[in-house]
Amino acid sequence: MTAMPRVAISQEFLLGLGRLPSAVQSRVTRWMLKFQQDPASNGINYETIKAARDPNLRSVRIDQDWRGVVFKPEKGDLYILLHVDHHDDAYRWAERRKLAVNPVTGALQVLNLETVDVGEPAKKRVSPVPLVGEIPASSERVPLFGHIADEELVRLGTPPEMIPAVRRIQNEADLDAAQASLPVEAYEGLFLLAAGDAVSRILSDRETRVDRKVDVDDFDKALETAESQSRFVVVTGDAELMAILNAPLAQWRVFLHPQQRKLATGDRSGPVRILGGAGTGKTVLALHRARWLAKNCTPQGKKVLVTTFTRNLAVDIEQNLRSLFLEDRDLAKVEVTNLDRWVHKFLRQHRYEHRIIYQRDQDAWGRALEAADQRLGLDSEFYADEWDQVVAPQGIRSLDDYRKVSRVGRRGVLSRAKRDAAWQVFEEYRAQLSSRHLKEVDDAYGDAASLLNASNREGAAEYCAIVVDETQDFGPQALRLLRAMVPEGPNDLFFVGDGHQRIYPKYKAVMGRCGIDIRGRSRKLYLNYRTTDEIRKAAVALLEGREIDDLDGGTDDNRRYKSLSHGPSPKRVSVASTKKAVEAASEIAAEWSRTGEDLPPTTCIIVPNRRVRDDVATALGRKALHAIVIEADIEDSPELKGIRVSTMHRAKGLEFDRVIVVDPGSQDDLATALVYVAMTRAKAIAVLIAVSPGS
Fold first, then answer.
1. CA distance linking residue 448 with residue 667, whole number of Å
2. pLDDT tens by residue, 438-467
3. Which of 213, 349, 500, 527 is deepest in the core (most CB within 10 A)?
4. What is the maximum alpha-carbon separation in the chain?
5. N- to C-terminal Cα distance for the chain?
6. pTM higher than 0.85 for the full model?
């Protein structure tokens, strides 16, 4: 039986397609549909590229002016679309390229032979590395990777043919210049090596196996590696092909970083926690995990729940999921909602008699304080903090539980007698709320969890898996509820988060104390793919000296957190008032416009609150600049042209080419975290306008 032809498309082909004029894109798309159906058809005009150094490359005629470059081995039924361009440009590209399988990683790699020196052996060209204390002669050029063996460079993803070129890299600038010519895993490995990581640490993080045998002539097998799938996609039908071609520049939908793909796919024995700084791709990873679960692990009648803390982020996630899923039947297996909305719906279905409140009811609280024993010497601030940091978040419902609860981090030691007396205030507060048919949100979470635990018989749960974004913003009661919403077992819970981005005043949760055991299933993402390293450093400096938790009782740090791209350092402007900050923000945007710098559709001014947001929008209007206010619960269409204006909370989870951030000047940890989040929305340019009275 003859095997069906297998068609794959490279990331570079799609990027090239996205840059073509729309009329040409349409012609290429029509041609690709025919090609995908039968690449061996007599109607496909394959032409030999005489000057090509890879004998497996062929040119295919799209029309009189445009050509595609296809990888077509002599044996087998694999066809890979590599490049599309004008006739002569396509031929020049092909003459300088070779497709090869890395002998260690097994990944399929496109080599740019312009950077490969096939002549002099590398060993003869490498200058010796100076001994410790020895100053090299000025004429000597010390290689950055001179101390790394060839075998280790290949393990990091460097194609053997490119080792001589890598040996010539002297500094970070040389490495940056080589980025476009190197496979992504090779560049990232060298980048981390230059930043101080050991080869063993990099390979361990990647879960790279170096003990397997690789057939460098088996291109079909090579396509199955996570590294290959970060730049090639195998197309299995017209519907999938059209979904890809309709948005050729939406790369995140199709190509996933190798480490992220390994985390997003495959069975897990229990709950998983993924940490990562801003821009490391946590949300994209969560979306791909949800898709994999829906396609592979969702029994009949069950769903995958994707949840997050706010309605805004849930709206953004649902929009992105719709573009990620290629088939409606899989999308129907996924539900997206923020947790509070789910709780409202669930409790309403169970005839819950209380209205959920998110702030303290002052009248009920005042009545409760009347029950306080004045002889204890405890002030009202103590009771408020004790409720917010101990009683409510830990779900303390009885005097006996309060006697035993840990109060680590709270001021003063409370004897048993003092706890007994203080409990009267908290008990009375709940009674006062109940008489008003009110419940604070943490208690409502606890009530929902109790209902689930009481009714969850085997097979009765609605969800088979839950994927959680922005985990750092969930308190203990929310995590306990999530644990109750899905049965314990393989693939049950998948959390992504970053303690550095905690922007809501919730008590820090410890996952292990909430019934969520992540031991052996915790990973961290270190590479920032959104923000330049200059912006990353400026943002991280805002949090210097603050201890950040890892969501499970330990500490987290950003020491290995790096950005792969570079750009100008963020500009800092100090002003005396918020009014001056509004003027400065609008003037900077106007100056960009006046100097001929095109304002991309993703330029955003990010401010502390809605009042300042509206003031900025008005100021932009006075300068004849079109402002687009990003509202809560409303999708932001990239087709709309103008300058975005957003609050810091609303901007969370979004990204923009340029960002102007208005810093209100507060030293509060949560306010600083908000500024950190706002700064890391920027991909290329960031300006920080700091309100500092007396400036």
1. 36
2. 999 999 999 999 999 988 655 568 999 999
3. 500
4. 96
5. 79
6. yes
